[in-house]
Amino acid sequence: MTDHIKAEVILKSENINLSYDDKIILRNINFSIKNIIRPGMLQGQVVSLIGRSGIGKTQLFKILSGLQQPTSGNVFIHQDKKVKAGDMGVIFQSYYLFEWRTIMQSLMMAAKQNSALKGKEKEAIKTYADNFNLSDHLHKYPEQLSGGQRQRVSIIQQLLKGSDFLLLDEPFSGLDVCVLDKVVDLLLQVSISDELKTLIIVSHDIETAVAISDTVFILGTEEGKPGATIKKEIDLIARDLAWQKDIRKEKAFMNMVEEIKTCL
Amino acid sequence: MEISLTTSNIKKKAAANTPSEVGGWSRIFQPFAKISKQTLIIMIVLQAIITITLWQITSDGLIPKPGNIATAFGQLLTSKLLLDNLLVSLGLTLKAMLYSIIITLFFAYASVIQFFKTMANFIVKCRYLTLTGLIFIFTLLTKDGSELKLSLLVFGIVPFFTTSFLSVIVNIDKQQYELCKTLGYNNWQTLYEVIIVGKADQVFEILRQNFAIAWMMITMVEGLSMSEGGIGTLLIKFNKYNDITNVVALQLVIFITGLCFDYLLGAARQWLFPYTKLKTGVAS
Fold this sequence. Notes:
The complex is a heterodimer.
Chain A: E1 5-20, E2 23-37, E3 45-51, H1 57-65, E4 72-77, E5 81-82, E6 89-91, H2 103-111, H3 121-131, H4 147-161, E7 165-169, H5 177-191, E8 198-203, H6 206-211, E9 215-221, E10 228-235, H7 251-263
Parallel strand pairs in A: 3-8, 3-9, 6-7, 7-8
Antiparallel strand pairs in A: 1-2, 1-4, 4-5, 9-10
Chain B: H1 7-17, H2 37-58, H3 66-78, H4 80-110, H5 114-125, H6 135-141, H7 145-170, H8 174-182, H9 187-197, H10 200-222, H11 231-240, H12 244-272
């Protein structure tokens, strides 16, 4: 097993329940994410939340991001801070950007929300734009960009805002094989950009999500009980399946994917 | 890194998927068929020629013939009478539209605040009130004919403007509010970004769509106080003397002026808000 330390809890979901009228959508969602430290390495982590389509992943995504209030329960970040909208970096499946703002203006809006960048907003935007190959597109409108470019802008926008957490809703949905690899590389690049940077990927694409994750939470239903809950937590580091480039070729990885599928 | 579906690619693909634009004249009678620009122009010209010819042939003396209307139209255009009256009407309409849009924007923006929401909704319902029934009340409330016309116009236009703008606000995509929230914006910042800045282009679109209503009302209110002139006054005078040829010629002037404004407001919107030119259709 790769040398690492699991330090303090950086995100905690405590007894989250969500119901619409009498219908229970989410039931007793309890999990926590700890800061993972690799000696001699500076990197964050990737956590996946896997579940079938229509199970309630998007609702949980919105609750974690503070965009939706649960019926009961709380989400805490950095020990005891109750999460509220704006605390998390959120990247929706549609990579929505204001169509009336140029890319530069959209990024500036986010940078201005980050007090750590005060007075250095333009430099920060330029650095990110260079790193993400968007320098030539800063003065364009979102409608003039491709889906991939918009995805990168959405990620930069949320990174500029300065949150330690980046929540991504179905980032691999509808991508062809070549683009998928590039998105995976991009997410890994983001995850190693900072020690506390934590990517939480909500997805039904088991293989791709798990291949880049350190921890996997499986959202599913339990027999005889209404609503979805966290059925299982898989520590990929403990299984020696994390931080490996060609992990998909490993037999143990394929077995684990099967294990997850049976759990869903 | 890029997903290959850019706007231009999508347009090319869409063009490739649509039936061929050339395919003979039979296509003009087929549903959803595309025709070339040249075919379209020829079709419109032919339709106009047929209509005018039928009109010329079937006119029995009571309805003026197109030739007579064209002559009257030419005379009107060269007369100082038309220009003076047209300028008076345009001045009044633009003034009324300016006041109306200010009132509309105030109530529409404020409609996201509960205290003003009921007021905005009441203004929307006011479009069911008839101006004719309110003339006496407005006469009592205003100082002179000019003020009476302006206030009646504003009262007539505002409910329609407000209805259109509230519908824009109600139909705002939830993602726009959510993006503001994820950026840590408070409610006032969200109101500014999503509704005031984000929908600024819609103000022009609403002006364009509702200019027709204002332009239609002007001829009615100008009849209330004829001393200042205006195309409404001119129309009443022509009607009084059964000068139908000039009435129709004047209608033509009103129609063309309306079309010009429609075009100007559309062009101004595209110039001020260049993103409105970019069509949607990029894959997400």
